[in-house]
Amino acid sequence: MPSPVRILTAVPICDGHDSAINTINLDFIRHGIEVVYLGYHRSVEDIVRTAIQEDVGAVGISSYNGGHVEFFSEVARALRKQGADDIKLFGGGGGTITEADATVMRRNGVDKIFFAGTALTEMADFVRQHYGNTHRRRRKATPDMKLARALTEIEDRYAKNKRAGKPAKKKAKSLGKTRVIGFTGPGGAGKTTLIDELVLRLLRRAPQARIAILSHDPSVVGAGALLGDRATMINSQNDRVFMRSMATRGQAGGLSPATGECLALLARSDFDYVILETVGTGQEAMPFQNELVQKRVLVMNPDYGSRLQLQKIVMLDLADLVVVNKSDQSRARAAVSEIEQRLEQNKREQKLLSTVAKRHRDAGVDQLCDWVMD
Amino acid sequence: MSKLGRVVEAVENYNRFVLKEVKRARSEKKFGQQMIDRWNEVKAKTPIGTAPTGLKLPRLALPEIDEAGEITRYLLGEGLPGEFPYTNGAYREMYLEPLREPEVGSFVKAGQNGKNGHRKNRKKAPALEKTKQTEEPTRLFSGFGLAEDTNKRFHYLTGHQRSARLSTAFDGPTLYGIDSDADGVFGKIGEGGLAIDTYEDMVRLYDGFDMGAPDFSASMTISGPAPIIMAMYIAAAKKRFGPKVVPNLRGTIQADIFKEVQAQNETIFPTEASLRFLCDMIEYTTREMPRWYPVSISGYHIGEAGATPVQQAAYTVSNGFAYAEMLAARGIPVDQFAPRLSFFLDCGLDVEYIALARASRRIWAIGMRDVFGAGPKGQMFKLHTQTSGRSLVAAEFKNNLTRTAAELMLAYMNGTNSCHSNSADEPFTTPSEEWIRLAAHGQAILLDESGIFKHTMNMLTGSPGMKAVERAVEAAMLEEFRQIEELGGVLPAIEHRYQRSQIQTAAHRYEEQIYNGTRPIIALNKYNDRKDEMPEVKMVRTPRAKKQLQVDRLAKFKKRNAAKAERALNELTEVVESGKNFFPMLIETVEVCSLGQITGRLQEVVGRFRPMV
Ligand code: B12
Q1: Tally of domains in chain A
Q2: Which residues of B touch A119 (CB under 8 A)?
Q3: Which atom of ligand 1 is found nearest the CA of A9?
Q4: A98, closest residue in chain B (CA to CA)
């Protein structure tokens, strides 16, 4: 089976009209498309960087607050300038985009505009027909572009092998300066926010460092996936961060079949930090079997239920660090002491931290950063 | 239990209480007679008006009932207009033409002389409401280009009105607290609303209007940076009319953070910081500007984002209770803040709109009285309505006139206090003069030309169908409240993405229904034989030269104030960090700093908003 069609969608800067794109994203996913969603109020720069790093087939923009001729044209120009104009540009904005506008936009490099009144399935069919196989060899590719394309090739290979039923395997090489940190934990624990706050601190404290993030979202059974972490990871949209969103594509346990190999590639690609984030996992999950992951972090919500539940969480035995996030909740104190007791059973060096990732300049996240850099 | 859970109980209790009283009126002779006496008195004292045809009509229509139980059910269950639980209207008289003959006495006065059980909820009509009655309910949302362009539009719109009720739309950069000179926003300047960078723009915006006059009011549709824009408004008024004008300022600023996070996506600081800034502003205005409405709790955006009408009303009213809880927790007396809360709902063509505002008004009144202990003015759900933009489509767009007319009917049948009617060119552009004129005329035709709403209160309320919808909507809203309560209340539900994901699912269903034909939209999926003709519509866009002018003006302002700006921002930072109310300082800061400078600094201090998918 070929890889699903992968596209990027976003809403321009100073525009919060996301109802259309949310609906369209949902419809695309049901039609088997993988959608990296960057969110609303996004700059040309963020969109182009994301399109390249995620190596999508096309970028779809939904614009309502005017200035669309300029905005679409700037995205097209920036893609061209970077030598990435094999990535197609399409979109809509209901009645705010006129036929005359669309003509100018097409001249400036926009592939397709969908006007008000277009049926949802018509758009999904168009995307599947036209944006599945847009990749062309690039004459002047930057290292990020090459890396992005290599990751795509790994994912494609796994997608094909899946049918053949033999997963490809590859051995890890030594890592040099690169540190690989894995984050896992149940859904709703705030992993994504925590990682984004960590990235903010790493960027400040290590002004030369480059960071890679491999983030995972679940595929919808028999369909595509919404890869939406970028929308909330505001600090990670930065030229010093290379982020790649992966869909689990039917694999249980929080990662994708291709994760191991993608991680290995990132780990030898000259980053200072490589951060791996799983999807929200269950109690039995132990996603970091990979020897490349040097530090394993379990992020928990104080709201895990009774003490008994803690006995069942396998990652509590394997984690090097347990973070109790959302520790402003009333249950947090009790949670920390219960987890502390649970960790004592293991009789090994395990660290426990309390954070409130959503709080500006949270001291707990500062400590997490110390631990990561240590 | 959060206060929302207690509101659910209060409404259930109240409904039981009404039933009990109905029974009592039937079984206890004395009580029954009291209710009948009151009823007869109300009827007797209702003034009679005359239609232009000579027909005599009572100014208040009442159901034809004479049995004590039914009278009790009416008086307690829905109440006369302007009486608890305000189902029929927040005020006694809404759009009625002023009476020509001397008034014989009104039913409210009559009620006060009567002897019955719920005297404490009755209110006198104070001077402020008098002005309210004589003002037109028409309030048209407008803004485009630069301040001076919108100023001209304001004068055009209000030229023929008795009062100037302005409603201001801001452009994208302003809504996100960004300056016009920021990277990558040039194309957005003055599009979809007007550009405001400094308080000097605000001076230009309301030029020629007497900002302190009793018949002037301004509404500003902005939430994320609302405190900064509010401060600019105050600074502009002070500059033009001196400091004494402040207590006279009348108007509304949207400032609703909850619905931004749920639906409109213009939050710029983390939710908690945004709420703190909002409460600082409310605390200031309720004290210093008693005629200002510092928050307009809005369902319009929730509805337009695709929520069902019930979701819209339930999230909006629950957001309202959450604000009340926050303000009470700050120690502001309920009768100081509650009368200054106002609401804003959408009105589309789904059947729920027949009674959506009625049900909302009732739940709000009961909750505020029985859970928050508010007096009558704090129980009244003061409502602005906008006809639905999303119901207006591009295909054969002139049909939008009919859609808007039907929605206006529904809005006024629901007793809205003010109303915006969308222009037929809504799907394409900020309205051009031609269509905005027709939108304004639509309201005048309904209210001035037709006799539907001007002779008699309750003209179209209380039909069996309306009551059936009202009851179904109330039950469904309470069910939504229970869901939110189960997640821990409004704020925790927001953090769970509850409202957002519900809205998104409903929005997808709505679009799906259009394209699979189960939701007929005329000329789009039904009678759509002219489908391929794209209409020619005049687009309102801001020329490059104007955009450049705004950028240049801003550069001059920044240069002129460079030295003072840094000092002012540092002082502002100190106040914010100290935890004190930052609003008084903000009013000074805006005199030397631009919107973007202030937003930027505040984001350094409290962080940036982290969007939710
Ligand atoms: C819903 C809506 C809102 C909601 C948005 C809720 C949300 N979270 O999205 C609310 C009420 C919050 C809102 C607010 C504002 N709005 Co508004 N809004 C609309 C409205 C009514 C519908 C847009 C919509 O979502 N339609 C549903 C979609 C599914 O259908 P569609 O638009 O026809 O799009 C079709 C295709 O074009 C295609 N498509 C669209 N995008 C994409 C993208 C891709 C990738 C693809 C493949 C296809 C595609 O899909 C659809 C299927 O057929 C329009 C007017 C209208 N009737 O169109 C105004 C409108 C877009 N808004 C407008 C304005 C000005 C604003 C405000 C700036 C007002 C203000 N000053 O405060 C604010 C700004 C909000 C913000 N945060 O940026 C103006 C824009 C004017 C202009 N550009 O000149 C409009 C045109 C109304 C008007 N005439 O004034 N708005």
Answers
A1: 2
A2: 515
A3: 45
A4: B428
The answer for B50, left when phi > 0, alpha when psi is -120 to 50, beta otherwise, is: beta
Are A87 and A193 in a shared domain? no
Contact B610/A234, CB-based, under 8 Å?
Answer: yes
- Please, what sign has the CA dihedral across residues A317, A318, A322, A326? negative
Asked if residue A228 belongs to a domain, the reply is: yes
Q: Which residue in the set B183, B192, B306 is minimally distant from A65, CB to CB?
A: B192
Q: Which residue range is the domain that position A71 belongs to?
A: 6-130
pLDDT tens-place string over residues A74-97: 999 999 999 999 999 999 999 999
For the question of whether the overall pTM of this predicted structure is more than 0.80, the answer is yes
- A199 C-alpha to center of ligand 1: Å? 34
What is the pLDDT, as a whole number, of residue A175? Answer: 67
Q: What is the CATH number of the domain that holds A60?
A: 3.40.50.280
CB burial of residue B213 (10 Å; 0-12, 13-18, 19+): middle
Distance, in Å, from the CA atom of B455 to the CA atom of B56, rounded to the nearest integer, reads 9
Tell me the backbone φ, ψ of residue B185, rounded to 5 degrees: -110, 0
Residues of chain A with pLDDT under 50: 163-168, 170
In this structure, how many other beta carbons lie within 10 angstroms of the beta carbon of residue A62? Answer: 25
Residue A305: its pLDDT value, please? 86
Q: Would you say residue A148 lies in a domain?
A: no
What are the sequence ranges of the domains in chain B? 3-77, 555-606
Nearest to A325 by CA among A294, A304, A305: A304
- Both A342 and A225 in one domain: the answer is yes
Task: Tell me: do A194 and A81 sit in the same domain.
Answer: no
Q: What is the pLDDT of residues A285-316, one digit of tens each?
A: 889 887 899 999 999 999 888 889 999 999 99
Across the interface, do A41 and B176 touch by the CB < 8 Å criterion?
yes
State which residues of chain B have pLDDT below 50. Answer: 102-133
Name the pairing type of β-strands B251-253 and B295-298: unpaired
Q: Are residues A237 and A328 in the same domain?
A: yes
